[in-house]
Amino acid sequence: MMSLDDLETPIVLVDLDRVEANLQRAQDYADAHKLPLRPHIKTHKLPRFAKRQIELGAVGITCQKLGEAEVMADAGITDIFLPYNIIGASKLARLKALHERIAISVTADSSYVVDGLARTFTDPNHKLRVLVECDTGMGRCGVQTPWAAVELAQQIAAAPGLHFAGLMTYPAAGKVAENEEFLEKAKAALEAQGLAPDVISNGGTPDLWHAHDVGAASEHRPGTYIYLDRFQVAKGVGTLDDCALTVLATVVSRPTENRAIIDAGSKALTSDTLGMDGFGYIVGYPDARIVGLSEEHGTIDLSGSDKKPAIGERLRIIPNHACVVSNLFDNVTLISGDEVVETVPVAARGRVD
Amino acid sequence: MMSLDDLETPIVLVDLDRVEANLQRAQDYADAHKLPLRPHIKTHKLPRFAKRQIELGAVGITCQKLGEAEVMADAGITDIFLPYNIIGASKLARLKALHERIAISVTADSSYVVDGLARTFTDPNHKLRVLVECDTGMGRCGVQTPWAAVELAQQIAAAPGLHFAGLMTYPAAGKVAENEEFLEKAKAALEAQGLAPDVISNGGTPDLWHAHDVGAASEHRPGTYIYLDRFQVAKGVGTLDDCALTVLATVVSRPTENRAIIDAGSKALTSDTLGMDGFGYIVGYPDARIVGLSEEHGTIDLSGSDKKPAIGERLRIIPNHACVVSNLFDNVTLISGDEVVETVPVAARGRVD
Questions:
Q1: How many CB atoms lie within 10 A of CB B263?
Q2: Which residues form the D-serine dehydratase-like domain (chains A, B) (predicted)?
């Protein structure tokens, strides 16, 4: 069997035992609170893990782009939520093709988007499920008030080929109460109009263990929970020992006493800081700081670290943000402990549209 | 002929006329100063542009990783400089295989690296060319003093299968004088030891038009000059109208008066700020600011912009850093004016090792 020493660096390692534990822990939590999970596959982009999520009890998956949904449908996934405004003739045609094959639902946050969907989907016997996206504090997409959600729901419900399926939000991390308030108000207002939502879909890993506190929500879409990362650990979702994705890198230079250069730069770790100091956590070197990245070099400041790695030494790095790392590598290497199980292509990598 | 309106977004556009003008301008400058160019292909990762750079007069190309060099060698490029510390049995074997096929040279900045090269390359009749990397102010890899460069050069020259070929630096932007001082001192010290360097290779686009001020340098390795980007424009290397690479995106949401959301996030533009405010420049909207990116959404603040784009409108964005954008997309679309010429795979994308 291959060991980690046989691998060329930089490379992405995914620890299968940790993946399984993270998936099981979240599903147990969801089951305990009777809150269906609809995991977001953007983190792993791998059909095998999407299937495992469903085996464990997930009601379906979430994809962020049509291209991801197409890959997952090709791999046999039959229930996909695409919480995105699908715009333009070509994308609407692709959505229609998916709708012919699998159960797919989308979101809208404006009349413009609903109009496009209504023109494309006209069959009252095979309606497209459309949820209204709500901005409950994130400041990204979404209608701004519960009343605007009702108005858009009415427009959806009035279109012969569309079914108003409910509400969706991606909440701001930490704003559990604001999120709950918005959704409760919208739900009540919808019910008053005879438009009770089938589903109220909430999301995110940072507040995963508080998902049941958003009482209005009827499903949750965590993504990063499968791998976790330095940011999620900082948010308290798990520990460093739960992180399943690491980048294996080699120290290629030790120009000074307190500087080490590794062969993993922004092409391996990305420049995402998510507001944190540095570009990742080096396993076994808690006081070493990754202070700079160029494309193919990472610069480590060892001034605070008594332990100093030598040239040629291999380091495992927990990235700040696992999802964006998955998107950089054509392949990831699945491991169990220190043994290599298999290297697999990241099937939905780079699906930007 | 296809027009930009026929393309799905987000997508990377590369303007061939601007590419040609940027390449020609740099080659003219280099010719005027009798300074050979050895362009870095990390920016474009496309064999066709590497070949064009050579047709215009470049003496060879630069790659940052073995995988990039392998792609370029497969495409017919015969002279490649790989300014990287190649470490480990597997990578040394790949380097050896390249050395059998093409003229390849590498760098070293420590005895550890030289030892590995010396063990692998032992044929005095087919020596590997090795340059000493010098840290002239960048704070990344490289020997720290001119005297350390001499010491390492002696070690290289003493190895039967290695040829000491000279010095290499990637200088800190703006530190032209410090760079020149280091290289002049090292050159003089080497000559005093009978180790006159064949080549002193300097790099970078930010100081491209000052490359001839580094009198010790005998070649220059610009990379980003082919496309330019928002950072290089800020450095004064060119204007916004010279930027050849743009990301075409669609406005998918206008949740508030002053917020627009586009379908290009960090998976299209990357989180690289390079110390600048925001994540790119929107052509035609000089006062709009891209203030946030999540993976598939870009958030634009329009509060300072009288002109406000509508949902469905397409925007062209000059990214902060063109090289990292090239690495995200499997394909780029070559254009001339507003006409689509061809969509081509980014052959050396994702070659991380």
A1: 28
A2: 244-336
Backbone angles phi, psi at B221, to 5 degrees: -120, 80
Whether the CB-CB separation of B202 and B214 falls below 8 Å is answered with yes
A264-286 pLDDT, tens digit per residue, is 999 999 999 999 999 999 999 99
Chain B residues in contact with A84 (beta carbon < 8 A): 252, 263, 296
Claim to verify: residue B131 and residue B257 sit in the same structural domain: no
Residues B296-328 have pLDDT tens digits of: 999 999 999 999 999 999 999 999 999 999 999
Residues A201, A214: Cα–Cα separation, whole Å = 10
DSSP B16: H
CA distance A141 to B175: 43
Question: Which of the listed residues A227, A250, A280 is the one where a domain comes to its end?
Answer: A227
Quick check: is B315 in a domain?
Answer: yes
Residue A173 has pLDDT above 90, yes or no: no
Number of residues written out for chain A = 353
- Which ranges constitute the DSSP H helices of chain B? 16-32, 47-55, 66-74, 89-101, 111-120, 146-158, 176-192, 230-234, 266-269, 322-326
Average pLDDT, chain B: 97
User: Is residue B231 one of the residues assigned to a domain?
Assistant: no
CATH of the domain at B286: 2.40.37.20
Tell me which H or E stretch contains A39: none
The answer on pLDDT for A317 being more than 80 is: yes
Residues 302-321 of B with CB under 8 A from A: 311-312
Asked if B319 contacts B245 with a C-beta cutoff of 8 angstroms, the reply is: yes
Q: Residue B108: give its domain's CATH number.
A: 3.20.20.10
Residue A1 has pLDDT above 90, yes or no: no
* Residue B268 pLDDT grade (very low, low, confident, very high; cuts 50, 70, 90): very high
This model of the complex carries an ipTM of 0.96
Residue A10: its chain B contacts at CB < 8 A? 352-353
Average pLDDT over residues A327-336: 97
Q: How many CB pairs under 8 A join A and B?
A: 165
> B197 preceded by cis ω (within 30°)?
no
Domain finish residue from A207, A227, A247? A227
A219 & A245 share domain: no
Is the predicted pLDDT of residue B222 greater than 80, yes or no?
Answer: yes
- In a domain, residue B81? The reply is yes
* A166 domain-assigned: yes
User: Element (H or E) spanning B315, and its range?
Assistant: strand B314-318
* Pairwise CB contact (< 8 Å): B299 & A268: no
Which among B132, B124, B126, B125 is positioned nearest to B106, based on CA atoms? Answer: B132
- Can you give the pLDDT at residue A174? 86
DSSP H helices in chain A: 16-32, 47-55, 66-74, 89-101, 111-120, 146-158, 176-192, 230-234, 266-269, 322-326
